[in-house]
Amino acid sequence: xxxxxxxxxxxxxxGITKGDPNFSGGKLYCHCPSKxxxxxxxxxxxxxxxxxxxxxxxxxxxxxxxxxxxxxxxxFITANGDKxxxxxxxxAIQRNACKECGVHLFGRIVKxxxxxxxxxxxxxLSDSKGWQEPQFAAFVSSIIEQGFNPTGVKEIREKLKKxxxxxxxxxxxxxxxxxxxxxxxxxxxxxxxx
Length: 194
Ligand SMILES: [Zn+2]
Ligand SMILES: [Zn+2]
Prior knowledge:
Blueprint: E1 26-29, E2 38-41, E3 46-51, E4 65-71, E5 75-79, E6 84-86, E7 93-98, E8 104-109, E9 118-121, E10 136-138, H1 142-145, H2 153-162, E11 166-167, H3 173-187
Parallel strand pairs: 3-10, 10-11
Antiparallel strand pairs: 1-2, 2-5, 3-4, 4-9, 6-7, 7-8, 8-9
The protein binds zinc ion (2 copies).
One zinc ion binds near residues 31, 32, 98 and 101.
InterPro entries: CENP-V/GFA, Formald_GSH, Mss4-like_sf
Keywords: Lyase, Metal-binding, Zinc
Organism: Clathrospora elynae
């Protein structure tokens, strides 16, 4: 359908660079030319993935975000935190964005939720190398809701697979199992210790 496949994400379009398993963290910066919001991450991230949902921050022209998680206690606002605001205070994930450039620095869960205790971050905002590479692609069909022609999605899925990212229309089985375990334990259908 396309002579050139639309940009999935700059970290994926031309092949994925593997991370360093011993990498220990770095700083994220917003896109402002000066007085950048700086967030320091004191460890590597986990479950890094491409996400097609409408809520995650995406670089200009990209169909997907790349987003991973990190424990809340490893996340520190280290400069210009006064420029941060919560994009949608009613959302399960409160995305803290720079009010000047719009970049999301971290998404935090404040209510009862399977992923509470983890922040969502975009490590492309860092100039350090070694962050975990994307592992899979989530919410692929959601790009259609945002205006992507459904006839092109097959090609997007093929490109994702070619780059080593299994496409899913929700999250990966590992994360869906975590959510279901949490829900089962909360309702008492599963014992709290497994
Ligand atoms: Zn900014
Ligand atoms: Zn998303």
